[in-house]
Every structure is written in structure tokens, then in C-alpha cells.
Fold this sequence. Notes:
The structure is a single chain. It contains 15 helices and 13 strands. By secondary structure, it is of the alpha/beta class. It has two domains: 4-123 and 262-349, 3-Layer(aba) Sandwich (Rossmann fold); 133-260, 3-Layer(aba) Sandwich (Rossmann fold). Helix 4 links the parallel strand 3 and strand 4.
Amino acid sequence: MFSVAACNSQTSETKTEGGRTIGLNYFGSGSYVLGVLRNNSEVVIKANGDTPLAMDNQFNLEKIITDLESMIQAGVKGVVVWTPVQSQMLTIAQMCKEAKVPFVLNDKVPSDPEIIAQIMENPYFAGAIGPDSAGYGEAAARFCIEQGYKTALISGPNVGDPTDQPRIDQFTKVFEEAGGKVLAVTYGEEADRMQRTEDLLVTYGEVDVIYGSGGDMGVTAVKALANYPDWKTKVVTAGLDEVVIDLLADPESPLVMTCGDFWVCGQFSAMILENYLNGTPLKDAEGKPIFIDDVAFFTVSADQIQAFKDTFLKQNCYSDEEIKKLSKTTYDEFVKAVRNFSFEERAKARGVTIPNS
């Protein structure tokens, strides 16, 4: 069975002679999502012959900054940065500029035009890449509409999260434009997520569906609904967590839909940084660093679960040869690889057959 621990212990198939130390932060231990993101970046760093220096922020926003300071003091040659707060990205950019350390924004990218403009002018900004967050929300909403759901509750992390807020906003917009009603949205830290979800159920009773904007929120909704076995409330979510996939395969589970990209931005971001360090910085025709905020996601049906596991869990979805090629390439070739990314494309490349595809 795949686990975060196993994921974090995976090693590269081959190595090159990079010899650099690359810093990366992960927001906290014990989260499957954050563990996969960390591993995805580490696989790329190791495939390039470099050494990852990963620091655990212990779910503390201030520690993102102090850990970055520690990485810089340790002499890292570049950093892969994850932060859920847009304003903090400016602080990080300034720190890296002053230290002359290249950085890439991983998975969470800014949407504020002023913040984007300032970061894009930073000579040490290698690029940024994140998922099509609004698309996740729209896909979930359209699924709910097709199923005939009319009432929904939403569970998300902190208000304004660069990834989850667009999902929540787009889900609400699409669902309500089709005649549905989002009765409430709850936000908050992981520590009180179960209590918040249970409070929603007590307040609003049996609804048609709960949308967990991330896998952790979806799993919490499933657990909370276990106290109401006679309810017909369903759960839709985003993310391809191991637990989510197993719940999807369980016909007795209320979880009926999920989508995601297996946090491939963890790999793409490290590739962007490696390109910068390898002397092939990824810049567009105007000389601006690569900035992608819409990496495509995919859905996994119950009969495709084994193919998904064979492609993404039993092996890295990119071979070391592919990683090294994409770590020293052109802007156009890298963008082409990102745009071609899909469940089908990766399965074919890794020798896996997907049923009904």
C-alpha cells in the first residue's frame, strides 16, 4: 500500500552530477498532500544530481520565513517555495533577491496583479507554476449538477488560500447559476476541521452534497457523515490522496467524485528551478519568467483506480531521463510538456493501460 512515508523514501533511478544543495519547504508533516508535493520536488532534485534540503514549517506561517532564512544561511543554490499567503510571496522574493538565491513558487501562485508584477521583475525569480484551481471547482459543480444535486455545503482551509479559494468561488458560481444553492462555506485550520464539519451538519441537516475543496476536507466530510448512516448526502472533493482514492473505490462510501493532478507542480516547479541553475532559464518571447497557473487536472473513475496507482503511486510518473531532459530545455518545450500532461499521456509514457480510455 502506498503511503506518505513510502513516497518520501523513494529514490531516483539514476543520478547526474549536479552537486548543488536545493532548499524546499513543506508546510507540515503528516499531511499526505504535502508529503507528495515534497517528494515530487525531491525526485527532480535528486535526478539532477543535487541534494534537497527540506524544512518542515510545522503548519506555522511565520516558520516559512525563518526556515527560508535557515536555508539561505546554509548556502543553498536555489529554493522551491510553497506558501498559501500571497503577501508573504513578496517577502520571500525580497529575501531571495537580497541573498542572490534563485527561487520558484511551487503549487501556490499569486493572482493579485500587483504582486505578480513585482515578483516578475525580480532577477532571481525562476518562475511559478500551479494548478487550474478554478477548473477544479467548476468540474465538481458540473458533476453535482449532472447528478441533480440542489443543496450544498462547502468546507475549505483558510479564507483566500491561492488554490482553494478559486475552487470554492467557481463551484459556488457554477452551481448556483444552474439553480443550486450553497447553504454555507466553512473555513479554518486543520485542527478544528472535524468540529467545523460536524457543526455544519447539525445546523443544516441532510443536504445533497458536501464539497471539500481539498482531499483532507473531503475525507473529513466522509468521516462526519458516518454519524448519519440514513442520510443520502454525498461528498465531492479535489485531490488524489490515497485515502480519497480508496473511498472512491468503496461503493458504500458517500464520496462519489474527485479530481486532481497528483500534485505534479511539485515536479514542474523543481524542473523550472533546475533549468535556471543549469543555464537555461525558462523565459517567454518577451523575456519574462515562466508563469503558469492552470496545470490541467484529471478525474479517475472506479475502474481506473489500479491504472492510476500503477502510473503515479508505484512509480514516479516521469522517468529520470524525462526529468533531466525537462530540467535543461527550452521555454516552448517545457510549456509543451506541461500542456500535454494528463493521466492518459503519463500512463502511456510509463507503460500503463487505462481501461475505457
